[in-house]
Amino acid sequence: MSVEQIKDKILSLQQALENRLPGMQTVLKDIYDHMKKDPEVVTILEDSEIALVVEGLKRHANLEIPVSKQSSAKAKRQPVTAADL
To answer: For 41, 64, 70, 76, which has the most beta carbons within 10 A of its beta carbon?
Structure first.
């Protein structure tokens, strides 16, 4: 499967997601199978295309991926004193 074919599958996935069409699982499996055989294809895809695949997987698995909060490492550190050494 070529990169253009994967991009076509991603467009099909986008249509399936937007219109809640049946067969989304089949399209996801095709994309997954190809990416498993050729993982370098992910480096060719645009961020928006990768986001569509992730959205399809989230919807298929019926899950929510939490977004981590960026915390400051400095806020968690305690000052070191001579007594600590």
So the answer is: 41
